[in-house]
Amino acid sequence: MIYSLPPVAGQNPKILILGSMPGKESLRAQRYYNHPRNRFWPFLFGYFKCNPTDNYEAKKALLTGNGIALWDVIERCERKTSLDSDIKDSVPNDIEDFLNTHPVQAILLNGGKAWAEFQKRFNWCSAAAVIPLPSTSPANAGWNKKNCQQEWANALDMFLR
């Protein structure tokens, strides 16, 4: 059984980004999107026109300082690899409690597995816009970097610009 990381959230986030479950590298380091080829942090650095950094505290501050919270739909599951397709016996995080204490305008779902798990368990959520986005994972070969980044920018623009 593997367990997700705790949420990253500032005082009053406008957006909650939900992934499915961190990969092995992220769990080992206890840092969201820690795989060097994941596009999540490069997309956000580009969107906010910031210089990239490896400093995880600075990465979290970039999120919270711009009204973004980060977490995962799944609290725990069985998975032998980092692939979402290998996730078995998933148990959700308490998204409802999070939203009660952090009312957000939008929930952005990073990838198909996050979207599917959210729909299966939290389809009641109507207080916020719920937007599925292409995965930032390096395993997502179906979306090229430019198109994927544009989809993310369009979603962020709706709530941050």
CATH superfamily: Uracil-DNA glycosylase-like domain
The main sheet comes to:
4 strands, parallel
Order of helices and strands: EEHHHEEEHEHEH
State the distance separating the first and last CA atoms. 40 Å
Could you walk me through the main structural features you see in this protein, from its secondary elements to its overall organization?
Helix content is 36%, strand content 20%. By secondary structure, it is an alpha/beta fold. The chain has a single domain, classed as Uracil-DNA Glycosylase, subunit E (3-Layer(aba) Sandwich). The chain has a 4-stranded parallel beta sheet. The protein is globular and about 40 Å long.
For this entry, give a set of tags:
36% helix, 161 residues, Uracil-DNA Glycosylase, subunit E, 7 strands, single chain, alpha/beta, 4-stranded parallel beta sheet, 3-stranded antiparallel beta sheet
Quick rundown:
By secondary structure, this protein is α/β, with parallel strands linked by helices.
What secondary-structure arrangement, pairings included, does this model have?
Blueprint: E1 2-3, E2 15-19, H1 24-29, H2 40-47, H3 56-65, E3 68-72, E4 74-78, E5 88-92, H4 95-101, E6 106-110, H5 112-122, E7 129-133, H6 145-160
Parallel strand pairs: 2-3, 2-6, 6-7
Antiparallel strand pairs: 1-4, 4-5
